[in-house]
Amino acid sequence: MRVALMTAGSRGDVAPYTGLGHGLARAGHQVTLVTHERFAPLAEAAGIGFRGLPVDPRAELDSPAGRGLHRSGTGVGKLVRMVALARSVAGDLTDGLVAAAEESDVLLLSAAVAPLGVAIAEGLRLPSLGVYLQPHAVTGEFAPPMTGTGSWGRPVNRLTARAVNAAVDAVFTDAVRDVRARMGLPVSGSRAARRAREHGNWPVLHGFSERIVPRPADWRPGLRVAGYWWPYDPPASALPAELTAFLAAGPPPVFVGLGSATTPDPARVSAIVVRALRAAVLRGVIQSGWAGLRADGDDLLTIGELPHHTLFPHMAAVVHACGAGTTAAGLRAGVPAVPVPVQFDQSFWAGRLTALGVAPAAVPLRRLSVPALTAALRRATGDEGLRIRAGALAAALAGEDGVAPVQEALETYATR
User: Fold this and answer.
1) pTM (2 decimals)?
2) What is 241-397's CATH number?
């Protein structure tokens, strides 16, 4: 089948789909990754097709509206600002998504584009399937991950989840209306479209393990947890010579990186990281990332983008913002974590790491300090229990196959 894998967002919202796409391609499908132009090299490395979308997420985060995210001190405030930012560019994605869909037999849609993708699938009479990296469906078991909180109790959790989903739908209100008119579909509001998906048990597979987030008992039918979709790394992936030499020169270092998260004061964050690492008597590998972190010294090395699957097993611990993708990479490597959540679902994943006993309590970026980070580093590298539990969990995850349930769903469509 001709499969269009559609997503939008930062690198963490894209990379897992390269592994999913590669696995589906090996099963005989013709896979095209449809996302922002800057991620074309990821698709090329994975051996799958690519169609670029015009919006550059890095540029949007660097814009005044993107930098404004840091002025919100609450998860809800950040979500409101992000919805406004996303809504301003949502319509720019439409032409690329439609063009890719017209050349496909089935659409696999991330949560970031699902409301628009489902409308396009309906207009072209194509089957569609959700492939989500986070749990977005209504449940009473935890608060919506995008709010960055743990739980407000079952009734409030469910009510808040509906409000968050309505906010996400609002991103695509104008774009969905336009595409429905363009394709001759009846007028339908975003709320009515979501109700139709839910009442019709529109299928969604989730790219994380039930060992990390068990399937909520109150989820509607059609929602499944598939297992992780690991980003594709070429078999010949190797670490740069400078990094290999640094690793050989002393004990395992600690990785520090915020991935695609940004910070209003990179110099301040970098200084805290350096002082904390040295206070804990630890070497460090600092990934610059979109936050622009940097550190210098014989005990420190600043690096650019490298495959986490290749890098993390060499680390004593990993300090990261707890995006879904980096959280998965740390779990896969069996290395203790130090969660430094910045925004949105990162606090949710940080809470899961702590609950699973593979990380100390989170140190949110807005409360980052030398004493707090030093204490967390000492715990992550000195507590043997964290390392044992992390290793055991990694071994269990290695036996899971997250691609197989997606392949089974595609076979069902092919049979039909």
Assistant:
1) 0.91
2) 3.40.50.2000
